[in-house]
Design goal:
Layout lengths: L1 E3 L5 E5 L5 E6 L5 E6 L2 H16 L11 H12 L5 H19 L9 H13 L4 H20 L26 H10 L6 H10 L3 H5 L6 E2 L4 E4 L2 E5 L2 E5 L8 E4 L2 H21 L20 H15 L8 H13 L4 H8 L4 H7 L4 H16 L2
């Protein structure tokens, strides 16, 4: 049984095994073949192929599964993004996307299937923020497939991902920050906590800090690197952004803490002798090498919070505390933005909008001083 289009653009044929085969001629003389269980399905495939050819769209094959494509994409982007970012991408793909949609043909993936995946992950207990990040990874991968002409559309653009949750920022008050530092006095990481609260430096920036980055006579610290995890271990990498490379003025409190810390570290080195791994780190582990961030958190920072009788916060919240205290003291937001390494002062103002009302009250009082009677 055979049917043929009058303009010879395509044909439909029934094979000996009972399946239907649709063929369409391409401009270069080649033919594209599609298979279907019924003649009606074959006819629909043929019509869709001719329509796509008329629109200048590529004809796609359903031979590649979504899981196969995602594994190939992961391998392709591994050396183009930061190791930690790639690791998270791989976890989203291998733990959450492939188990549910990996065997779906890449070209037959639908928005409904993707939306159902998001709903399932939320039901399984993943947070809206995690599912939102999962969506971002899948969208990025399919965007590349579209550019490579493996797809005709990116179905993730037709899906509504859950909104990211924005938890309330946790900061220490000035009194709590002073109490925390008083509790940490004499501790091996006292200077690190002082620097975090005085400069707003990120944890990775603090752990990558070397003595050559600190100019105590000038009272400055240069942020030039960050300590990041990679499959090969911890490595020194470029700061988060171009604006993250910065020079920060140190208050006297931080300068004195660093002087004490340097003396303490000299004593540690003398005790270990040849056992000390000297890579010039300001805040190394007990033998001079890079400090693992989770070890700092679990073995040092959280126990210190508990010792001080303070609620549990993230180490990153010391950065938020620094910004909040500076803005609350009336420091120009542009200066605070530069200290934090933000690319634009609007980021600083948006993040710390809870401080803005107090700043406006200060501005009103200043105007009274200038113009009031």
């Amino acid at each position: 049984m055979r049917g043929r289009r009058s303009n010879s653009e395509g044909s439909i044929t029934r094979r000996s095994d009972g399946r239907w085969m649709a063929r369409v001629s391409l401009a270069n003389g080649d033919r594209k073949t599609f298979y279907a269980k019924t003649r009606q399905e074959a006819l629909q495939l043929l019509k869709a192929a001719i329509r796509d050819l008329d629109k200048g769209l590529p004809l796609l094959s359903d031979a590649q599964m979504l899981g196969q494509y995602l594994e190939t994409w992961l391998a392709a982007v591994q050396h183009t993004i930061k190791p930690g970012t790639w690791k998270r991408h791989a976890e989203y793909v291998r733990l959450h996307i492939i188990p549910d949609l990996g065997k779906v043909p890449l070209t037959k993936l639908t928005a409904q299937q993707v939306q159902a995946l998001y709903a399932k992950k939320l039901d399984e207990g993943l947070s809206p923020t995690t599912v939102h990040h999962l969506h971002a990874v899948l969208h990025r991968a399919l965007k590349v497939a579209l550019r490579l002409e493996l797809l005709q559309r990116n179905v993730t653009e037709m899906v509504d991902p859950p909104r990211m949750a924005h938890p309330e920022m946790a900061t220490l008050s000035a009194e709590q920050a002073r109490h925390f530092l008083a509790t940490a006095a004499g501790d091996r990481f006292e200077a690190l906590y002082v620097l975090a609260l005085c400069t707003g430096m990120r944890q990775g920036e603090l752990l990558a800090l070397r003595w050559r980055d600190i100019d105590l006579p000038a009272g400055t610290v240069s942020v030039r690197a960050t300590l990041r995890y990679s499959p090969q271990g911890y490595v020194f990498a470029e700061p988060k952004t171009h604006h993250s490379r910065r020079l920060i003025a140190l208050p006297q409190l931080a300068q004195e803490a660093l002087k004490r810390h340097k003396q303490m570290q000299a004593e540690e080195k003398a005790k270990l002798g040849d056992g000390w791994r000297d890579v010039d780190l300001v805040f190394p582990n007990t033998i001079g090498g890079p400090m693992v961030n989770m070890h700092l958190l679990r073995r040092e920072f959280l126990p210190m919070l508990e010792k001080a009788g303070l609620r549990r916060i993230r180490f990153h919240d010391l950065r938020h505390t620094a910004a909040t205290l500076l803005l609350g003291q009336g420091v120009n937001p542009k200066i605070v933005s530069e200290m934090l390494g933000h690319s634009d002062v609007s980021i600083t103002l948006n993040l710390y909008s809870h401080v803005t009302p107090h700043m406006q009250q200060q501005a009103a009082a200043a105007m009274d001083d200038a113009l009031g009677t």
